[in-house]
Amino acid sequence: MRNILIIGAGRSASSLIQYLLQKSDSEQLHLTLADLSVELARKKTNNHPNATAIALDINNTEERQAQIQKADLVISMLPAHMHIEVAQDCVAYKKHMVTASYISEAMQNLDEQVKANGLVFMNEVGLDPGIDHMSAMKIIDEIRAQGGNIFSFESYCGGLIAPESDNNAWNYKFTWAPRNVVLAGQGGAAKFIHEGSYKYIPYQKLFTRTDALEVAGYGSFETYANRDSLKYRSVYGLENIQTLLRGTIRRAGYCQAWDAFVQLGMTDDTYTIDNSEHLSYRDYVRLFLPYTAPVNTENQFCAQIGITQNDVMWRKFTELDLFSDDKKVALKNATPAQILEKILAENWTLEPGDKDMIVMYHKFGYELNGEKKQIDSQMVCIGQDQTYTAMAKTVGLPVAMAALRILNKQITEPGVQLPIRSEVYTPLLAELEEFGIHFTETEKPYLG
What we know:
Blueprint: E1 2-7, H1 14-23, E2 29-35, H2 38-45, E3 51-55, H3 61-70, E4 73-76, H4 83-92, E5 96-99, H5 105-108, H6 111-116, E6 120-122, H7 131-145, E7 149-161, H8 178-182, E8 190-194, E9 197-201, H9 203-206, E10 211-215, E11 219-225, H10 232-235, E12 243-251, H11 254-264, H12 281-286, H13 297-305, H14 314-318, H15 336-348, E13 356-368, E14 371-382, H16 390-407, E15 415-417, H17 422-434, E16 440-445
Parallel strand pairs: 1-2, 1-4, 2-3, 4-5, 5-6, 6-15, 7-12
Antiparallel strand pairs: 7-13, 8-9, 10-11, 11-12, 13-14, 14-16
Helix pairs in contact: 1-16, 7-17, 16-17
């Protein structure tokens, strides 16, 4: 049996585990699923004979290293900042490694050691990053093979709620880590290039600078820019491109309402609130309103964000029970962002029968034989339920497929890498199509 150690049994790991367990007999696999919660790990393995669920504190060096030594390959589904110690152990004990996370500077610094040991460290092989890279490189390589010159590339992705489960005013529910949603866009200005001009959008303006997006069969959406699109010029080999923008997709109207939280300061995670555990939701809201003589909190809130209670956007805030005197924060020494996350989780958590939806959209502008053309490529994936979500499917399946191909020596190029080579992305995209994850491509004259 070949041993795969999976570290992290969270919401994105469900389809990953299911795929590998279904392949475990034919591929001679044994999975060790390690999580801080052994109960969660047991639930995900469901007593499968080819799986062992264990409790693992990633900060316990002795336990972590003991498990890594037993493995042939390690899949880390931990938060991105927790990968590096696992990666260092994988180098020390000569184990291949797969993650769905962006390649950090610390991870990239291991490249020489990884190559020297003949190891494959495949990163950015989830959804975004992951499927976005693979599907984009497929088209980029096809255009280049024809002799075309790409002058514009826009790429957008969003984890959303499926139309049949869309039953709140925000048209949104959490499909991945709620904390990451609350803190989205923080940590630096969004940077991209548009028609040859560099553009920078600071966090406090990010959700006011949106673009409309129509997705065939699914209606109207809006997009906002991700943090740093510029680094993908070198990744994709598009150093001379005139427009390069990567962004996040939300339903139309979401960003304007979310910007109210940003402007009031409710997404701030840099300080804690005294006596936060005793605050009602109304008390929490009032923390961010002017300290004039007491007035109606609802009216004051509306005045600060520039709406009235007749505004269609007002329903988004009342639906969250923001002005409740009865509901309590009940979090000690909490930051504004942590309290907002708690409030949202009560309203935006997937119900057992809910289905989520992934939307990915690429737009390429290129010139071929003196003619400007455009390729639109879109992928929509609908989840099965609260556990086997579209997010878990699109993040977990490519991770699992890449891991198995590394074990089977079908991916052998050593080093710290992402899936942008044809020999990696072509078979992965083909297998993903078997699971209903496929792109529809439309070519037309360039529309700008």
